[in-house]
Design brief:
single chain, 252 residues, alpha+beta, Endonuclease I-creI, 3 domains, 11 helices, globular, binds zinc ion
Amino acid sequence: MTRPFHEYDTVRELVASGMNDCAISRQTGVPRTTVRDWRRGGEPGAKAVDRRRQFDATCPLCGDVELDHGWYAYLLGLYLGDGCLSEQARNVFKLRITLDLKYPEIIGECGLAIAQVRKSSDQKIGRVPKIGCVEITSYWKHWPCLFPQHGEGRKHLRKIELVPWQQEIVDGYPARLLRGLIHSDGCRGLNRVSGKGYPYYMFTNHSDGIRDIFCRACDVYGVHWRKSSWKTIAISRAADVAKLDLEIGPKT
Ligand SMILES: [Zn+2]
């Protein structure tokens, strides 16, 4: 990650447009204290970088730890589908991803994705059993850096869109994002027509923004999609299903 240099210009432009530090931080993923420094004329030089390192060197956005783009794209898909962040005591955030108990391999893959994104030797990934599902949890002050979509209220009642650095990652790994989105809010089904089975993929989400993110990833990956209802996107042409099967396949 080349932060903070490539985001400096974006932040300065938003400052010039009159946006406040909190809003700029939310939109760009740049921590609010850094936005404040840059607003005051500080440049992303050595001093600022050192201070952020003390803040948390294991955060790919504040520190200089490399973010694994493929695993991030997958985890982002799970988060957008069935995840949330909630603030706990002392500015710690809980990442919670709710998964169906029917799919033990997806539960395992979610834990792996968190471990690959949150590269810390002392992390604990929790499994909280609920009726029919399990919550995978991880506590960290810096989850909002990685998921700037965090905000008040339900996701479908807020505007959800990716910030530029996320879009860049997702455009590089569209199938990984689609895998995460299908694993959380999608399915692979079978239509039976005169005894023959035709597989299809379906993605259902109440948020316009999240459906747009799904459709854009389909476009970038090169599969055709169609709306099958206001909240559901379907992929059903044989060649497109076969292409998705290379990266996703039945949920297990
Ligand atoms: Zn951070």
